[in-house]
TrEMBL record:
One of its GO terms (cellular component) is plasma membrane. Keywords: Membrane, Transmembrane, Transmembrane helix. It comes from the Bacteria. One of its GO terms (biological process) is carbohydrate transport. It comes from Bifidobacterium scaligerum. The lineage of its organism: Bacteria, Bacillati, Actinomycetota, Actinomycetes, Bifidobacteriales. The chain crosses the membrane at residues 40-59, 65-90, 111-129, 135-158, 170-194, 206-228, 292-310, 316-334, 341-360, 366-386, 418-439, 459-478. This is MFS transporter. GO terms for molecular function: symporter activity. Pfam families: MFS_2 (PF13347).
Amino acid sequence: MALRRASSHRFLLENRRNPMSNSASPAVGRKLSWVTKLTYALLPLSFTMTTMVMTWQMIYYTQPLAISIGIVTTMLAVGKAIGGFITPVWGYISDRMYSTAFGRKVGRRKGTLLIAAPLNLIFYVLLWVPNMPVWFYLLINIIYYGVYPGINTVVYSLPSEMTDDSKDRAQLVAVQQIGGGVGGFALSMFNAYLFKIWGADSWEPYFKIAMIYAVLGTVLLVIGALCIKERPYDETTDISSADKGAAEKVGFFGRLVSVFWNFLSVLRIKTFRNYLGIFLSQMTFRTVRGQINAYFIMFVLLLTPAEVSLSTGFSFLFGMVCVVIWATLITKLGGMRAYRLGSWFTIVLFVGIFILGLTHGSMPKATVTLVFTILITLFTLGNSGIVNAQTYVQSFVPDVDELVTGKRREGQYAGIQSTLEVIVNTVVTILVGVILQAVGFQSGADVTTQSPLVVNVLLYMYCGTVVVLAFVGILLTYRMHLNEKTHDILVAESVRLRNGGSMDDVTEETRKVVEDLAGIPYEKCWGHNNVINVSNKA
């Protein structure tokens, strides 16, 4: 047994050292250079285009264009909801781009980006065209939010796509976080400067600023796309063969069924179910906290957002340092232990914020401001650990999927996660509104006139949701058995089978690891199931 296990690990290492082996693509068989990692950062940096939309679009429509707030919020909600449900379609297309001549020539991820980038540019520009009828903006928003997932789905799939090396993946996740953070911070600083020069009373400044980001973001996106590494066309990336099964081709209706089935059938994979619980718990508490943060500051602590705004600049700089810290810790501790560490740190901080909320009346206002600013800035450290560890672990889920399906479907999982983010944001927004309305929250009321019930609900919702769901996430990590050791065994088995090895020759240790991570018998793995194709009877 020990000999067979050593042979399995040696097989994996040999293929990693030999990037030109038939079993390992050049993109995943070697260490990534820092040039590759830094050019990957151009992709999340290009998200400044989207940050401009999220930050200023509502103001642009309601102020210079004078569209009513009710129409604008409805229009944006419809666009985002439709975009959320189109996202898995882009993941489906990206995974199957090798079925086209263009995809085989350019690359499936690169090809998807190069198709989505010009479409994104066109409809991004049209968002900012002034003095058009409301139906025009509604239509353009729907199309824009339907096109944009073609970019972010690919970007979020790349850490898993570009390498099998754990350390490289951790660094790509860190680069992704830093690129997005730098882009958002640079946008806020640059916009403040431009609005000071051009003013903000008419439509022209918004349009000109948006056009600057349109050009800059698209250039960064195209350069980043041309520099990415990806898995080549081979048996595991040719997913169209699994879609067709015994049929000669798949029609339009069959594709629709396949998109829906692929979205749901991933729940059969045990590791994904465990990961899903971890993702939803942290996503939910971070969304709740973000939704009521201003209310908590105003109505519980009796402060103004301006009084704690000093933490914003510190939080950004501190956050960049935190990302580097957690990237290092994750490579040493592993994803799950890093997630627990970040969660426990967050729990301690929010217990402290809860105590502050109960006792702030006996403290000077300056002391309350200082203590809250320190605690919420330190939350950046815990939050960074949770987000980085969760994103890092997500990059390993497609490796389990490959052993189950025999195919590489990074885009599928990136699309599903983006859709779930939209769903969580929508549900949390509705629930927070319903709860606050039910307990008598008064819109437009003075900070001292909200009822004690409203104040208590805000306190318990703000702190309790974080503490409870962070603890739930910690418990779920103990069900997640995907670590570096099991991952090495998993990848070694995929390499062996990809090279034509027989499933009959599996070692007992490998069988146990695969069945534990997949949640299905080993004999039903490597495509001997209907996870991709519902009509597959194998």
